[in-house]
Specification:
The chain is α/β, with parallel strands linked by helices. It is built from nine helices and 16 strands. The chain starts with 5 loop residues before the first strand and ends with a strand.
């Protein structure tokens, strides 16, 4: 084993606020069959980490809990049966189980992807979970008739890490993306990254504005990670046979659905997660390769807004939870 026998990591011993995040020193065990040891270069910060820390995530893990779903780094060692990675490989991942808030970790190898030399470690950490989320939303979560160039789609919180990637990728695909955000500055950022329209939902009725933009027809798809505050409006923005996708709940859980009302509107709804689509190593690598290709081409860029040290993890979570940030935030293990 290369390196120290223990590493600094973030651990939660009880669910709660950011004050429950503690820097601890934990053993770094050798890899078992099917596992690798990764020495991290940069670590991604995501709102799902807040869900897990606070215990509100419907699939919360038991405490004590290590946090973090995303990082980039270098493989230090591999266990028996690992054939797609070797020591020294540059890698990136966004996967279960949590534990990326650490200098290094031992973890399952299946969903760890080789990182092309053309993509920097900080870019990879900022985009893996968010970029593959953008991939499954735009390419897998489509209405029955699919999405074609020129179709209008609605995306909430468009100035966030996922949102800015979706704005660029949607433009690349020829979609007419209608962004919502909570300030004029965030709206301007979404427009600068490829949104065709931007709505400040604090000043405007986004449902009425979407209907105006689309000539009363509505959007082909609405992508909603905000949850309680926006969901009913998202459904109301759909055109006939449109699709509303719930993939987060930053403002709280979506209320119980009235199935009869959905029938009257003739629309579809779904609740999805990235990990539903990572059902095999081949599937995960294919998603990552598609992301790497669009980033290497320059069509999509990861917007890194803030960088924190591991010791600043509480401040980083406060920034995440305030929903005042834009783009992606990343964490240095050093």
């Amino acid at each position: 084993m290369i390196g120290p026998a223990s590493v600094r990591a973030v651990q939660v011993t009880r669910f709660g606020g950011s004050d429950e995040l503690h820097i601890v020193r934990l053993p770094l065990r050798p890899p078992a069959p099917g596992e690798i040891v990764v020495r991290h270069e940069w670590i991604g910060l995501n709102y799902t980490d807040v869900y897990q820390r606070s215990g509100v995530h419907p699939l919360s893990f038991a405490v004590p809990l290590r946090l973090g779903m995303e990082a980039s780094g270098v493989v230090e060692s591999t266990g028996d049966g690992v054939s797609h990675l070797r020591p020294g490989d540059r890698v990136a991942y966004a996967c279960h189980p949590p534990g990326s808030y650490a200098e290094a970790r031992t973890m399952p190898a299946r969903d760890v992807c080789r990182l092309p030399d053309a993509i920097a470690f900080d870019t990879a950490a900022a985009m893996m979970l968010k970029g593959m989320t953008a991939h499954y939303l735009l390419k897998r979560c489509r209405p029955p008739d699919g999405l074609r160039a020129g179709d209008p789609v609605l995306f909430h919180a468009a100035a966030g890490g996922v949102g800015l990637i979706v704005c660029q990728w949607a433009r690349h695909l020829g979609l007419e993306l209608i962004a919502t955000a909570g300030s004029d500055e965030k709206c301007a950022l979404a427009l600068a990254h490829g949104a065709a329209h931007a709505i400040n939902y604090r000043r405007e009725d986004f449902v009425a504005r979407v209907r105006e933009i689309t000539g009363g027809e509505g959007v082909a798809a609405a992508y909603d990670a905000v949850g309680r505050d926006t969901w009913d409006g998202s459904v109301a923005c759909l055109r006939r046979f449109g699709l509303a996708v719930s993939f987060g709940m930053a403002s709280g859980p979506v209320p119980p659905l009235d199935i009869a009302a959905l029938g009257r509107h003739a629309v579809y709804v779904t609740r999805q997660s990235l990990f539903n689509f990572m059902f095999s190593r081949k599937a995960t690598q294919a998603m990552a390769d598609d992301l790497f290709d669009v980033v290497a081409s320059g069509a999509v860029r990861a917007q890194i807004s803030r960088r924190f040290a591991l010791d600043e993890i509480r401040a980083a979570h406060d920034a995440l939870e305030s929903r005042s940030s834009t783009g992606s935030m990343i964490l240095s293990p050093r």
